[in-house]
Write a structure and sequence with these properties.
The chain has about 525 residues and is of the alpha+beta class. It contains eleven helices and 27 strands. Bound molecules: adenosine monophosphate (AMP).
C-alpha cells in the first residue's frame, strides 16, 4: 500500500512527515536536513534547483531564483525563471515534487496522497491553488488542513471535552495567531489574525543593520554597497540570532568583509541577547495586539483558553515565550518542535484519513515550575527570597531555558544558586532540589557582574542547572535526577488552570505580606538580583 504523507508547505521552509508505528516523524533528506527551503531556481546551465541549492544562489542570481512563492498563491501573477513564465502553483508544485521524492526515497515506497497545510486565513482561491499545486506534483490531496489545526493535533487535544487553544505561529516571513476550538474529532478555527510580512527575516535585517553600523563605526567609513557583502552580514546576523536563543552573548566574526586599499576589514564583535531583544521588541508588541484582536473576534478572554501553542522557528526565542506568557498571564504556553509540529500534525491527519492506527501522540511536560531564589527590587523596596521561574510548569520537554541575574552588592564574591520546584512566590515554600555556589566573582560594583543560569530538563526527567559568570565563563553545575522531579501525564493538564488561578491570587497576597517585612538585610546576602 502506498504511503500517505503530511506536508507543511511554508513560506520560508517546507517539510514532509509520515507515520511510523502510529507516530509521526519528519522525513530528512540524504544529508539529514529536515527543512527544505521553499526556494526554486535554475542554474547557469538552465538546470532546476530546489531547496538549499536554490537558496545558496539567491544572492548571486536573484533573476534565476524564486522565494516566498506562497505569498502569491491564488493570484494570477506569474514569475519568471530563466526568462520563462511560471504560475505560483507550478513553482509550489516543484517544491512538493521534491518533498514527494524525498519521502519515496526514505520510505522505499510510492507516495501518491498527501494532506497539505495552509494558513487559517487563506481564501478559497489560495486553497484551490494549493490543491492544484499538489495535483501538478502528482499527489492526490486528501485534505487542505489549517496550519493551527495541524499544530493542535500534535498536542493530543482529542479529548471529549471542548478545548480552546491559541496557536501563535511566528516563522521566517509570516506571523499568524489563531484560536482553535476542538471537540472530539471536530476542529474549528474561531478567529485568525496576523501579518504576512512579519517574521524572523525582519529580525535578521535589523541585526544585519546593527552589525553594518558597528563595522562603519570602527572604520569611520560607509560600507561599500555590495550584494555579496550584504548577504554575508545577513547570514551572520541569522546565525547570531539563533545562537542567542541558547546563550546570553555570542561572538560574531566575518573575516575579510572588504578591503580599504590594501587593508582587509573584518567583522569582529560581540552581541548580547538584550541587544537583539531591544531591536525586536517593538515588532513583537505588534504580535501581542494581534492576540488581543483574535481573542476579541472569538469573544473570549485569556482565561477561556486551555492552552497556548507556539509554532514556527522564531518562537524559539526566549523573549517570544516570555512576552506571550506575560501577556496572557497564567495560561499554559507550550511548544513542541515549533518548526516541525505543523508537518507532524499533517501526518497524523493523513494517517487518520487513510484509516491507519494513529497512536495518541503524548507530549510530556514539566509538572512544576522550576527556578531559583532571588531578591527583587520592587516599588515596595527590596524583597528577598522571591522565586524566579526559569522553566514554567507545563512546559513541553525536552527544554532548555536561561535567564540572566546580577550581583546585588559591591565586590560580591559569591552567589548561591538555590534550585526549587513549585508555584509559590516565596522560594522557601517550594520544594528544594539542591543548591550550589559560584565563587571568586570579579571585584566589581553591584549589578556589574552577570550570572547566566541555565536549566536543561531532558526526556529522562533529569534537570541540569548550570550557572556561569558571563565575563570569565567560570561555571558550576548541579544535576538533579528524576526521583526528585515528578512528571505529569498529559491528561492531568486540565487541572492546571485552577491551580494557576490560585497561584495568582496568592501572588498578590504575598507581595502585600512581603512589603510588611522590615528585616531583610540578612536574607539578602547571598541572593542574586533578578531584574
Ligand atoms: P519557520 O518559517 O517556522 O521555518 O521559521 C524560520 C525562522 O525561524 C527563521 O527566521 C529562522 O531564523 C528562525 N529560527 C529558527 N531557529 C531559531 C532559533 N533557535 N532562535 C531564533 N530564531 C530561530
Amino acid at each position: 500500500m502506498a504511503t500517505v504523507v503530511g506536508i507543511d508547505l511554508g513560506t520560508t521552509n517546507s517539510l514532509v512527515a509520515a507515520l511510523d508505528g502510529g507516530q509521526p516523524w519528519v522525513i530528512p533528506d540524504e544529508a539529514g536536513e529536515l527543512l527544505l527551503p521553499s526556494v526554486v531556481g535554475t542554474n547557469a546551465q538552465g538546470q532546476l534547483l530546489v531547496g538549499q541549492a536554490a537558496l545558496r544562489q539567491f544572492a548571486a542570481a536573484p533573476e534565476r531564483t524564486v522565494r516566498s512563492i506562497k505569498r502569491q498563491m491564488g493570484s494570477d501573477g506569474q514569475v519568471r525563471l530563466d526568462e520563462k513564465p511560471y504560475s505560483p502553483e507550478e513553482i509550489s508544485a516543484l517544491i512538493l515534487r521534491s518533498l514527494k521524492q524525498r519521502a519515496e526515497a526514505a520510505l522505499e515506497d510510492t507516495v501518491e496522497q498527501a494532506v497539505i497545510t495552509v494558513p487559517a486565513y487563506f481564501t478559497d482561491a489560495q486553497r484551490q491553488a494549493t490543491k492544484a499545486a499538489g495535483e501538478i506534483a502528482g499527489l492526490e490531496v486528501l485534505q487542505i488542513l489549517n496550519e493551527p489545526t495541524a499544530a493542535a493535533l500534535v498536542f493530543d487535544s482529542r479529548s471529549d471535552e471542548t478545548q480552546r487553544l491559541l496557536v501563535y505561529d511566528l516563522g521566517g516571513g509570516t506571523f499568524d495567531v489563531s484560536i482553535v476550538e476542538i471537540t472530539g474529532p471536530v476542529t474549528e478555527v474561531l478567529a485568525s489574525h496576523g501579518n504576512n510580512r512579519l517574521g524572523g527575516d525582519d529580525f535578521d535585517r535589523l541585526l544585519q543593520r546593527l552589525l553594518g553600523e558597528r563595522v562603519e563605526q570602527e572604520h569611520g567609513q560607509p560600507l561599500p554597497r555590495d550584494a555579496a557583502l550584504e548577504a554575508r552580514l545577513l547570514q551572520a546576523a541569522e546565525r547570531a540570532k539563533i545562537e542567542l536563543s541558547e546563550r546570553s552573548r555570542v561572538a560574531v566574526r566575518e573575516p575579510y568583509l572588504f578591503s580599504e586599499g590594501d587593508t582587509p576589514v573584518h567583522l569582529d564583535t560581540e552581541l548580547r541577547r538584550e541587544e537583539l531583544e531591544a531591536l525586536v521588541r517593538p515588532l513583537l508588541r505588534d504580535t501581542l495586539e494581534a492576540i488581543d484582536r483574535a481573542l476579541a473576534d472569538a469573544s473570549l478572554k485569556p482565561a477561556d483558553l486551555d492552552r497556548v501553542i507556539l509554532v514556527g522557528g522564531s518562537t524559539r526565542m526566549p523573549l517570544v515565550q516570555e512576552l506571550v506568557e506575560q501577556h496572557l498571564g497564567g495560561v499554559a504556553v507550550n511548544s513542541f518542535e515549533p518548526d516541525r509540529c505543523v508537518a507532524l500534525g499533517a501526518a497524523l491527519q493523513a494517517g487518520v484519513l487513510n484509516g491507519e492506527e494513529v497512536e495518541t501522540f503524548l507530549v510530556d511536560v514539566t509538572p512544576h515550575s522550576l527556578g531559583i531564589a532571588t531578591a527583587m527590587e520592587t516599588e515596595l523596596g527590596l524583597i528577598p527570597n522571591i522565586f524566579s521561574t526559569i522553566i514554567p510548569r507545563n512546559t513541553v520537554i525536552p527544554v532548555s531555558r536561561s535567564k540572566l541575574y546580577y550581583t546585588m552588592r559591591d565586590g560580591q564574591q559569591l552567589v548561591r544558586i538555590e534550585v526549587s520546584q513549585g508555584e509559590q512566590l516565596n522560594a522557601d515554600e517550594n520544594v528544594p532540589l539542591g543548591h550550589f555556589d559560584v565563587e571568586g566573582l570579579p571585584d566589581r560594583p553591584a549589578g556589574d557582574v552577570a550570572i547566566e543560569v541555565q536549566f536543561g530538563f531532558d526526556l529522562n526527567g533529569i534537570l541540569t542547572v548550570t550557572a556561569s559568570e558571563t565575563s570569565s565563563g567560570k561555571q558550576e553545575q548541579l544535576v538533579v535526577n528524576k526521583s526528585s522531579i515528578q512528571r505529569l501525564a498529559s491528561h492531568e493538564l486540565k487541572h492546571s488552570r485552577n491551580q494557576i488561578d490560585t497561584l495568582f491570587a496568592s501572588l498578590v497576597e504575598q507581595m502585600d505580606e512581603a512589603a510588611d517585612e522590615d528585616d531583610q538585610e540578612d536574607n539578602d546576602k547571598e541572593n542574586i538580583h533578578a531584574r
